[in-house]
Amino acid sequence: MSDSDAFRALWNQAVQAIEKAIALLRHPQEFGAISSSYLPYVSIIPAFAALQVQASRLSPAERLAAQRKIRHWYWASVFTARYSGSVESTAARDFLDVTAWFTDDTLEPSLLAEFRARVHVLDLRREIRRGTSVYNGIFNLLVMNGARDWTAGTVPQYGDLDDHHIVPKDWGKQAGVGTRIDTILNRTPLTAETNRHVIGDRLPNEYLPELIEANGETAVRTTLETHLISPAAFDILLRDPFGPDNFEEFLTERQRTIVHAIADLLVKDRLDVPPDLRDLDAELEEVDLALRGVVLERLNADPNVVPSHVNEKVKDRLETAARKNPAFDAGHFESLAGRLEYFDLRELQDTITSKLLWPQFQVLFWEQGAACEPLRAAR
Fold this sequence. Notes:
Order of helices and strands: HHHHHHEHEHHHHHHHHHH
Distance between the termini: 80 Å
Radius of gyration: 23 Å
Number of domains: 3
Strand content: under 5%
Strand order of the largest sheet: 1-2
Largest sheet: 2 strands, antiparallel
Shape: flat
Structural class: mainly alpha
């Protein structure tokens, strides 16, 4: 075979691999990137395609675990914006790291640990621009969750989707909430018919009661839950009057629901875990997230008051992560919110119980302890 023939053969193999990878990414139950507009990265496709080819060459018994690892790597890359910087060296390194991980569970890429730490404190309020990896990743998640149209009740054809503002953009201008009206937390996929001709620019407290009257409250709540709008968020949307404080409360609740869905569906693979352990894992995760929020609030988001030995450990982890990830956002980790992503439970404990900082937490924990006394007495 001549060099030109060999080149053509390899070229055709590469094209076929890319085509298969794109089809898989577009699949609504697999990765949810239903069109090029909602693909988190174009630049991740070559690495994704190469990993798919490599996984296909494994023995049948090894392929299932390999596909799980590819999914973990992919979503970690999406939600850490890994492919927003220099991609050639990142793609080459990721290919080597993930293929090594295929056959040795101890070789998990460091990206996964970084992702697990960061997922709990993702600030989705600032994701206001369509086309970013995190914005599109959340949209993909909604598609994968089977988001149903609010009037038809069916999963829409994906060529007929609008990126809908749940609380309308015009209301946001009048209420002075700024660019937060455009956050992904206030967006969801609906058909063009529902978005433009049924809902329009009306507040949810206007159109949701109409849907409830026509279809029953249970059906409407169930439909909105497919959009990761929790019962608590649904109740907030029904409030009348609905003001900026209600809007902020809605964003907070949907942030909680979406972050939990990322961890539950994309990171933890909890569907393979027994239900009792799955529930316990979810509860522990909620406690961990709440504890980090308490530290952030009680320390007024000031990273300089954290005990020096804790700061040193976190600094070492950040430096390690920065060396391994060219797209690492060092500026984000100058804040306490960013640094808390790299605290383990022992470091949270050391921060809370340190001699200088304990007074900031003492009253809070005493109040919680007093509230639990009746429960202890009843046991």
